[in-house]
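As promised in the previous annual report, we have extended the structural survey to additional targets. Below is the entry for ADP-ribosylation factor-like protein 11.
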Amino acid sequence: MGANMGKSGSLLDALPTGQGTLHVVMLGLDSAGKTTALYRLKFDQYLNTVPTIGFNCEKVKGTLGRAKGVGFLVWDVGGQEKLRPLWKSYTRCTDGIIFVLDSVDMERMEEAKMELVRTAKSPDNAGVPILVLANKQDLPLARQPRELEKLLGLHELGHSHVWYVQPACAITGEGLQEGLEALYEMILKRRKLAKQCKKKGR
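The corresponding structure token record, generated without further manual editing, is:
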């Protein structure tokens, strides 16, 4: 039941029709490790990648906790500055956002924060769970999740946003499945709340 792009190749053709697959978008600055993380999740091995111009799309499966066996259709969108205006069209109607962060690159932390906040505050993304994948944790100067929460201003996003910072290393795969599990839990929580609000008939 893979997502076939179809002859017209539009985004909508590729969206899963069943309830079984969750639609997730992977964003982040260029060189943060998005594509490496995607293919590590897909094939469970390290693949040498080139900068993404456009997007990669793969179906991956969760292997831990309640996410075990759950299908995620992951859109990995290029992070170069000229490509970032396109992010909006990928995040529309998505179940979750994975923001991949280079935990070592302090010079670009402010830029990463700006893009993350812009994405989170877009009206289309209100309430969409955000998993921050704190990548490159294998490197000596990698910042820890608590420090990254402060640097990215995650606490300032307000109550309408659920987020989680997962330390990870895309090259070894460490932390990636734990991240998917955390994202899945946030998605379930959001759906439960949405159902409750409907029942109250606001």
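Confidence is low (pLDDT under 50) at residues 1-18. DSSP finds six helices and six strands in the chain. These points will be discussed at the next consortium meeting with the crystallography subgroup.
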